[in-house]
Amino acid sequence: MSEDETLAAFDRVQPIVASDAEIEAAVGDADLPALLATLALLTQDPALLAEELKPPSPSMTARIAPQGGMSPQAQAKARALATRTLIGYRDAGCPAAAAPPPEWLDRIVQFLIRSGHDDLLDLLRHEINVPDDQGAPGWHVSDFPHAADLKVAVIGSGFAGITAAHRLKQAGLDFTVFEKNDEIGGVWWENTYPGCRLDTPNFAYSLSFAQKQDWTQQFSQQPEILRYLLDVARRSGIRSHVRLNTEVEQLEFDATRSAWKVTARAADGTAHVEHFNFVITAMGLLNRPHVPDFPGIDSFQGEIVHSAAWHERVTVEGKRVALIGTGASAFQIGPEIHSQVSQLHVFQRNPPWMLPTPNYHDDLKPGMQWLLNHVPYYGRWVRFWQFWIGVEGRLHLVEVDPDWKHEVSISAGNEALRQECLATLQQQFADRPELLEHVTPHYPPGAKRMLRDNGTWPEMLKAKQVGLVTQEISHLTQDAIHTKDGKSYPVDLIICATGFKAADFLYPLKVTGRSGQDLHACWDGDCRAYLGISVPGFPNLFMTSGPNTGVVVNGSAIFSSECQVEYTLRAIRHVLSQGLKAVDCREEPLVRYNAYIDKGNESKAWAVAKTSSWYKNKSGRAAQTWPFGMLEYWSLTSTFKPEDHVLW
Does the reported pTM lie above 0.90? Predict the structure, then answer.
């Protein structure tokens, strides 16, 4: 296989032939902290890491400080130095970067992060992933001759499934990936609704072992994310292991074999049964659409579509459309379609807090794109920089201060965030005070997902053909939605942007454990797992995106899933190294871990707020959210603890 067909192709850049003036112009568009780090890696020149150039990285509020909070004077010095360095690099023939000594790499990392965070170095080395793949298993199945026939099943082929497949392939294990859809990609294959895009920065929303250089936007649209995932699958060589159009319906642990009996149904309806020693679920957290069971829904004669089940036959032109929900997908769909419809009714239950993001839909600046395409490893350091900013994120702003007394906010920091977001709302709706009242949340920021705002949502709500409905829906008739205040809204098309069955982990998969117990019956709607990965009584079953692993105000879901997969490989290695067949989590560590999780969640905005969100299950417990920082999860999953398990 040529290098073009391997993951190394993601790091390829074009040689620099630009003029001095063109280089200077490109640097003018640069993300300076990341560029200084990149050039320090290429040249090992300590001047690029001078203390006067170190970004202060102030804590995040509603906005992120440009250039890490560098002063205008520091920015000017950094641009001049970076320009001279790039010109010198060009004149030297663009030499390949030598493998940096570990102490030099650490010095670059410490230049970018705030002082006093040396405890994060191992985690951050994993994310920059230079010069070696830090997350690779570090072992091979050939080290354990008795394991030659071992087989692993992976359920799902989104980000987590691709990660699991890549790491299993590195370890030389025999594995099969089951994918229910026509193509690899998970939610990024399924979600094709108008305006679908990321609402987290895309460099950080990418895999540590496949760091793409040439993103075109900061918040990429669905087709670009899907192309990236397909490229990763092809270049990592895992496509041949994927069975498309095959949905796993049932897992049953076979105690006589210490293996899982996997029943999967193909597109033609035939069921196939195989045994696998280990199973990794990569089914996602926001995967199964939730469509409210409105009274009279069966009588509606128009079309109903969920945002996650959009298809090419859906048309909105000239129609009376109802958009139910004001969450992340609604925020993308509404502004995209409102100019095409004859009438748009937006049904809102709780207004969201919005994060001002002026560049949400913008292409990266030309100079930034040039740097990404010509400077080796610049994309890696941009990804690292975005990851670093998100490591702490807004976690400090959602921590409850028991001494803070306010009717809405839960701490001084939370109130400052609220005021910043409120000021933007007041400016956007100054000409429509009646709308301002309805779009202003009355719960603390962070209690539910905060959304990206570049002004298109307020612009849509103020359009003459758009109406905001805040009354609860009572029922549907054949051509209308009726609300509890007695009003009716004639519609031709209902778009349900109503979220997912987030609390129903592994739904609708049937899982039968070691003693014949049903996993969903054991959970009874209150899902819990050890590290969010394993459940007592269900040996050799490992989850990604399991209970209490959702990061909502800091960190990255991609990072969490990589932690879970790498932990799983550690567990499998331990089983094999001991000449054993199975590993099962013990009950006491599960109880202890979940007490720790619950205590953390009880001190967060989403626990005390009186508002609904997908963060909580039907009993009101936060079963989806991770309440701590990324360092804590990294530390917990970086070691497999045999003492927390039964092995045989």
Answer: yes
